[in-house]
Amino acid sequence: MITEPVPAKSGTRLAALDGLRGIAAAGVAFLYHPLLELDPAVMAKAPAPIVWLRDWGWSFVDLFFLISGFIFAHVYLRERRLDRAGLADFAVARIARLYPLHLLTFAICVVLFLGAPENTWYAFLAHLLMMQAFVEPLGHTFNGPSWSISVELACYTLFALGAVSGERTLRWVTAAAILVPVGYLVFFASAGGPWIADCIPRGPLGFFLGQVLWRCRERIARVPAIVLVALMATGLLLDMGRFSPLLPLCLLAWPAALCLSLRIPALASRPLLWLGDRSYSIYLVHFPLLLVCIPTIESTTSGWIAAAMLLGFAAVVLVLGDMAYRRLEVPSRRAIRGLWQRRRNVVAQGAVAA
């Protein structure tokens, strides 16, 4: 959803993960959130997979975190590309990637939904500073799903500080970022628990677990595909009772899905790569539109009409996501990076002249 397509040393990219990210974005934007708004009578007649998507579709965000962690390790750890000298470049690249589209969709939500009681000035400032994950009610202020962008930015910060401090420090950061959230979820979270328990720990858990998967990629490549399929099925079906359902999904299902995806050439097809490239735009654009459409969606009592509405909603989001990607996301990223590079060149030339 968030990380860019990554060129590998050979000129290729982790294309399968881009395709997988596109599928996850579509699952959240086109199914999970809209399905929550459908009349219960309509959902009562829905097939079991659709009901599962309504109940557990939120966990696609955990797959996003895993993918981001894997790709960041692939880019920055393979050749030790991140050091103290490159820390500013890293920060600018991340802001250039995340902030412009976040700012636009946030501004749209301010115009449309400022009067909502949960959209306080405190929430306004938190969204402006991309700290909305630390404001209650989590996921319910302005562009709600952007809470995960805020958490991911915090993961980037942890990763960068660990990476520039050396391999040993990064390994300690990775261990803590996985074990602390797991312990927290086991002891405090539940399926209906508070947002702070069910959301924030998911970021570092998924992101740094993705980095562990990257470090173990050669060993995992020797694991039979049927074993990965079994792990994925177990994670999707396992009932953890009073413990958070995040655990089997985060620790079994989605890691297995990520590893399995690297063996599926179809995930690198052009349509899925197109979707993956636009996953961040789709993710941020869909929710404001959904909020506008909720009265119509809620009033639908026919399953066929509901299906047609969901298809129409998905089509509009795809168009808007494509426009946001081509007209704002890519140009603004290039402009910010170009401006930063020109500034660095000027500073370097001044130092040489002195």
Automatic annotation (TrEMBL):
Q: Where on the tree of life does the source sit, at the highest rank?
A: Bacteria
Q: Which GO terms fall under biological process for this protein?
A: polysaccharide biosynthetic process
Give the UniProt keywords, A-Z.
Answer: Acyltransferase, Membrane, Transferase, Transmembrane, Transmembrane helix
Cellular component terms (Gene Ontology): membrane
Molecular function (Gene Ontology), one example? acyltransferase activity, transferring groups other than amino-acyl groups
Q: Which residues cross the membrane?
A: 19-36, 56-77, 98-115, 146-166, 172-200, 246-268, 280-297, 303-325
Acyltransferase domain spans which residues?
15-318
Does Transferase appear among the keywords?
A: yes
Classification via PANTHER family = ACETYLTRANSFERASE (PTHR23028), BLR2367 PROTEIN (PTHR23028:SF131)
Record protein name field: Acyltransferase
